């Protein structure tokens, strides 16, 4: 019995000697979302001087993965304020051990369960949490790629990047004063506008992330915000039919437009539409050798009403039209050898109505009046007509939208001509397709339509003749950030800065296209002689998107077209390249698409040649010194469509010096194209030089990479990169 009493006494002494927090910690399971580290100080009990540390994960609202931590420190013993319901000191001294343990458990349970919300609801905005504090400095806080909070159409949204400052600590990292109390309440997040506890960076949604200001051929009541800019352009390619003898890569309508938000209610714009080809079919049995249609249209849109679900606006345009025609199309002269060129004025007035089911789905109604002359060149013309337009826009994903629209001509005028009689007739005008955002500021439009023009009045016209031929359209929309503070990328985290080797690979190959794109604001210049003599400029308009223009005197090619040689011309080319995957930023490889249009200026036959090109370049770097290229490409050239698959290698022998080898077999039977040589890029200067041998007809325009010369030549190129933003 005496031994039992002795052992029991030792046990009680041991229990009483334990710090209460250590005992509670050992008895209470800690959730995974909150880890409590015991220290020498207890909460609610006087203990030796020390500190308490609470580590709480900060989430981005989508994952439980810890993203950061908040550390609470105290330099002097403090009591839990009465707001936490901590027991008085005297009561603790007289209560039993069991009560002390129970109260300590309740005290721990009363701590906040979330110190910093990863996503805080903000009206018309979304909050994107910052990168882990222990991984990135505050200045390099990364943005999440989570979808911006949806909002009602027409409302200006915002994306906020929030960087938390450790609780009870100044922004400069100075610890709190020794007499500053530390309580569970002090760990609660400060208000978003508190300058001492958080740094908030706000990004506006780009116009492409908001409901569309127009569909492919239909005006909506949605408006550009004040200061917003909206560029659009592309090519409509109508098929040619066998009854029309003249060649060419198709029947193209080129269009371009720019819109600007003057105020949140007033939008001004200018649009341009151009066609210069024979028509797709004969009219009255006559082969139309010449038809040109040019439209230039200043326009406006004013928002009359904006409610939660309903928006009303009015828009109008005054348009200058120049038409060159022959063989019975808008002329009484049926002699195919004669052409007539004349100009006129047209216009439009539209009343778009938009109903929003939610932020992703909208229904549009657009009654319109088109004003065209009744006659042109003493022949019947379109005249004044009423139209009823309707359309649907659905944006199920942040980067993907689907549009469809229909314009019904009600009369009294018409919107196309009959191939049989040459009379003015009516035909519904429609379009359907999709828009994919390469980044928040750049969208790729792919759709089908039978619309002829792209100005506000001519987009109500159907293609000539009959209006039943369908064009495939590729277009680009771009909303530059001029003082608007748009988010620059959908990627989460900061962009990885480019190394010297990465910058060297921003240069194209000799005849192959790289999947890499220039940085925003970067300009690339290239010029050369040898296998084609010419120049090229490229400009990075945004992350993963660049525009190019090049000109070249091609060498004499072989095997391109039987009895017709499309080389030996001076050719101007316009191109765009859009990147979908980027190995530098963590993707398994780099992937892009490049589309180009080329126009021959002078030919031996005395008339210009046109051609189109589409490429799908892949780039893969197994090691930094080695880059491998796969470059499928196709040319749309008159009566032939050459298809090649380019294979290439770029190996860095030592810093700045590279070996380049390229081979493009043409699977459609033409002669293969090859190039090989050395490139030296002066480190830090972004200035490079090529010395190569090749049998290609050119090095600067897409034509050269698909056309072989009979004999190889030696050539020299110079490259120079300027500028380039490292904006995330």
Précis, in short:
The protein is mainly β and 728 residues long.
Share of β-strand residues: 35-45%
Q: Can you tell me the residue ranges where pLDDT is under 50 for at least 5 consecutive residues?
A: 1-95, 108-156, 160-198
Question: Could you give the distance between the termini?
Answer: 76 Å
Number of helices: 5
Q: What would you report as the Rg, rounded to the nearest angstrom?
A: 34 Å
The backbone outline, from C-alpha atoms, is globular
Structure commentary:
This protein has 728 residues and is mostly beta strands. The strands form six sheets. Strands 23, 24, 25, 26, 27, 28, 29, 30, 31, 32, 33, 34, 35 and 36 form a 14-stranded antiparallel sheet that branches. The chain is globular, with a radius of gyration of 34 Å. Residues 1-95, 108-156 and 160-198 have low confidence and may be disordered.
